[in-house]
Amino acid sequence: MSTASPSPTTAGPRWRDLAGGGRAPLLALILLGDWLVAADALVTTTLMPSVGASLSGFAWFGWTTSAFLTGTVVAGASAGWLSERIGLRNAMALSGLVLTIGCLMSAAAPDMGWFIAGRVFQGAAGGWVAGLTYVVMATAFPQAMLPRLFALANSVWGVATLLGPLIGGIFADAGWWRGVFWLFAAQAALFGLATLWLIPRRASGEEHGGVPVGALVLLTLAIASVSAAGVIEAVPVAAGLFAGGVALLAAAILRDLRSPHGLLPASVKGRGSPLRAAYAVYFATTAAGVAFSLYGPTLLRATLGLSGLAAGYVVAAEAVAWTTVAIAISGAGQQWQRRWLVGGPVLILAGVAMQAVVLGGGSMVAVILSGLLLGTGFGACYPFLGQRVMAMLSAAETTRGSAAIAGVRGAGGAVGAAVASLAANAAGFATGLSPATAPMVALAAFGASLPFALWSVAAAIRVVRARADQAAAGLTAAA
Length: 479
Description:
Elements: H1 24-42, H2 44-55, H3 61-86, H4 88-107, H5 112-140, H6 146-173, H7 178-198, H8 213-229, H9 235-258, H10 274-304, H11 308-315, H12 317-329, H13 334-358, H14 364-392, H15 398-426, H16 438-447, H17 450-465, H18 469-478
Helix pairs in contact: 1-5, 1-6, 1-7, 2-6, 3-4, 3-5, 3-8, 3-15, 4-5, 4-7, 5-15, 6-12, 6-14, 8-9, 8-15, 9-15, 10-11, 10-13, 10-14, 10-15, 10-16, 10-17, 12-14, 13-14, 13-16, 13-17, 14-18, 15-16
């Protein structure tokens, strides 16, 4: 891959090269894992009303999301450590088993408590799967192929965004919401068995450092507190939970950075570390973009009178743009990669700013355009950001550092959702949404997300400008 080509594409690795060299089974495993995580996270969008009616649990809607998210973030953060401890093969098989158990618990749940417990298991398994698939990408594929691999993996999320709510709606309309979880339990079991066949037995753990108990406990309390802040409608209580959660998150990060066997790689410890800046881009972009999926459908129903499914598909414009752009530019040369790395967050900033205005009562065209801007931003920067992160990691840090991407993104989503929820509730969302109150709610929720978008632009500039000798050497070797 040329380092000076001004063209958006180069004669680098082709799409079919991803499956070459005996990598086809691993590629299939990555895509299946991404499908399980994405579909399981998205299918409940149209399914929860049926679950609530069946289990008399409407009051617990928000807690199902909070429980799922807490499990996802904590497990995602520990995926690298788990892989080093028990081996990639065993860790992936374990994640498939836990996901199967979680889906079975929700499928057979006699009440909302069991259903939420099942969602915790599903979230934890999803976090592990997400983190471990990054490990497979980093260890089994050449770095030059990573942008195309990231683009292909992201396309699975695009498909799940379109099909997940539809699948949930079909089962809900048929009066058998439990069938979705039986279906996903079977898929999860297949994934777990496939890992035993596809991941080499030699990929066993060699790390025997201490268990990062302190960091994990603090992280669990932090994400649980932050997630609860997004559920509780009383603004003073929610604000207190959020402040406490952020403080606990900071304490977890500091404790982890001081530990010789932490959850994060050692190279992130330096204040000027380009790896730290890259993780910041992941955190901040996820935090900035989460409000669209969180409040977009509800605002569209209130202002434009759309059905829940129709509103969900309008919001899916983001996923369509994300997938299309990522695939289209994944072969870009390094000069264009640097442009996209900064241009992506800039487009996310523009999309969020536009949503603060149009989601409160703008036209359908304007809403779709804002979603396209947001999705284009993610699709433009994420394929190359992931490649940069993995190029910055030493051989000893590859497992932990690549898996950490999932935990960082999950934490960003939790914090961003809590901030947007606090702002929306303070603007009157908790007391009811109407065409009259929608403009203020949209301005508050999306306006509160703008600082994250600005942070992501600044962090992306640091990634591009940093004199990351290790990253440059890795990218040059890959070319």
